[in-house]
Amino acid sequence: MVKAIVGGNWGDEGKGKMTDMLAADSDIVVRFQGGANAGHTIVNDKGKFALHLLPSGVCYDHVTNVIGHGVALDLDRFFAEYDELLGRGIHPKIIVSDRAQLMMPYHVRFDVLEEERLGKNSFGSTKSGIAPFYADKYQKIGFQVCELFEPDRLMKRLADICEYKSLILKAVYQQPPLDPKEIFDHLMRHAQRLRPMVCDTARFLNSAVAEGKTILMEGQLGALRDVDHGIYPFTTSSSPLAGFSTVGAGISPCSISNVITVVKAYSSCVGAGAFVCELDGEQAHLLREAGHEYGVTTGRPRRVGWFDAVATRYGCMAQGTTDVALTLVDVLSYLEKIPVVTGYEVEGKVITDFPCTPVLDRCKPVIEVLDGWNCDIMGITEWEKLPKNCRRYIEFIEKALGYPVTYVSTGPAREHIIYR
Ligand code: GDP
Fold first, then answer.
1. Are 403 and 8 in contact, with CB atoms under 8 Å apart?
2. pTM of structure
3. Is 226 marked active-site?
4. Which of 108, 189, 254, 385 has a C-alpha 20 to 30 A away from that of 173?
């Protein structure tokens, strides 16, 4: 059985918590896209972990964690995270696709240089090299993991590609050229350590599907950051959609039985781009503090807003949702009244379908106000024990989305969950 756990918003919905929780009864957790540019926080009996590149099943001995073909593999970041786990007494089972591509040191450098060049028009990149990485991948000047074990071939391609990259470095950024030998040596330092983890992960996963194993596909970011469906160009450079997970992992598109879309009970957003529900001033401050809305990777304060039914319904549709996991509901306990965005006003009309970017930039939120519950609900595990207004809030969201809210998360820990 294959379940995708993916984001319905702009990211940071609590996918890590849901994956960690569902991994208890799963055999395999797969990362299928993205790199170390976003963080998942998991809190369990072994402590608190901020994962960036490693799948969220790493804390379980029985789970095999897979870095699939679609991932941007930064070997420095990968081993730093791996070593941190080892240092904390966790020995994760990890396999890495031979077809995953390598994040090169110059990808990170290009990301930094380009954001600097753009100045106030920058994209708010996490500067992890993601955009230059995927640009190279699709320009077919990337490097697959398998090439690490063909040193002559690797060195030859590196020399050619560094020559091209150096021309850009000089002409656009007035920077010194790349030294292919230095990059080669850097990669070789990691290659032997990586080697025992590398295999044809698609074959492994296809066998696992055939054997009826339970597999979680762990999406990064959220639907509104998808390169095709999201708020382009303020998207990521890959697809964090459940539909893409089968491509990035290499299994049949028919194999997914559940798409669990993780949706936040309010909104948050890191980086630039239209965010119609955005709050500022005191309201934003209170919500940001209540939800500890600071980026896991960057520490940046996240932009925050009320729940946005227009954006989230669209995000759930893009994901092909079968179940919604509504998270961080407890964060709203401080409010007596809870505003919700139910429509967008643009050019004198109210719309309820999420528009494309140029229109989005002109939209203003249409707000409905619901009664809050104004008491602590952290850690409640039974639906009936939630205050009546809290149940009403969740039912309102369920109706606005048109997808069943199957899980309600009432705190950061694994056991803070209601299964409806
Ligand atoms: P991800 O990238 O989607 O995994 O999300 P993040 O890890 O960036 O953000 C989710 C944050 O909320 C983490 O710090 C989680 O530990 C925490 N979290 C997840 N679910 C809940 C919840 O229901 N309530 C509270 N209070 N915190 C939660």
1. no
2. 0.95
3. no
4. 189
